[in-house]
User: Fold this.
Amino acid sequence: MVNFKIIFCVIITLFFFGIIKAQFISIADYDNKAQAYAILSAQYTKLAYLQARKMEINSNPEAYCDTGRVSNLIAIEYADSALYFAHDSSKKAIEIMQRAISYQHNANKFFNHFSSKKRLFDQKSLVFALGNAIDDAYLASLLFDNQENEEDIIAENKERLITRIETDEFSFVTIKEIYGNRLTELTNEINALEKQKSTKTGDELVIIENTIKQLKEEEKKLKEKIATSSDKLLTIQSELSEEMLKIVDEAIFTTEKTGFYNEQVPIPKNPKMPEGLVFRIQIGFFRRELPEEHFDGIFPLASEQIDNTYFRYIAGNFPTYEAAKRSLQKINDKGYSDAFIVAYFNRKKISISEALSK
Assistant:
């Protein structure tokens, strides 16, 4: 479980360095505690990662070492808590979380034994260990099973469900971004070191050659991780797009979610609607399916096929007419001046006047 003395220590340290502004999730928002602790572990590891990167480029790397080390220690505590709360059925998540902990412990060794004489080798190893730990902790958070009845959770606390879904999506985007950024960094670093080899001899040359070998191994592993995880991550995002359409809430609607829908994550077609009274916004009625980028930014979206010929595009699920009206204005502002509000009751379309009388 979490050591609160360590937490207090790092809060003071982080405040001093001006990075306490970082936003962390709240355990109270999650019924799935294993998932929540895994996300917190990833978030604190990311703090350590940022400090390690500053150690790379700063003339006084020791100034950032203590903050990074303490952040990483908290990340390890949260990772252990994720395993403590994990259900036995979450075998894959447990395996990945254990791997994240291994990377965190390796990073801790580099923090503890940091030496300017071994700066090139140790710092690269530290950065990549922390990067791998972030990847794995976020990925594990997506895979931890929750043994509670999901329907009861939705009925009891809709806001918690929304928070979990949005964090899952954030985890997906973060993993994808880190993979891409780190692959670019690895390639650039290998190229730079290859150019340096011709000017070095003796011990310096050995250090550079060993570093290049290590970086190429990291590059190979990263490419393998990208190849094996992309399908799973796309599946997760597709599931999230479907799940959002089951929730009747103005809070999840946005016109700024650019790039979410694409060929791999298409706009859901004919999804099952929620029961009860629901207001939605009809954006348009077309003779053919439109590309996802046509509605870029509007979320959540659904399409309905009518008479095997026409396609109706619908946005959001709103509990009241007033909530739908506020969101309709946002859609109008994006140029969809013909959009209008439609109402459904128990999945059947009804008139607005009938809906307002219920």
Strands lie at 254-257, 277-286, 297-299, 301-306, 310-318, 340-345, 348-350.
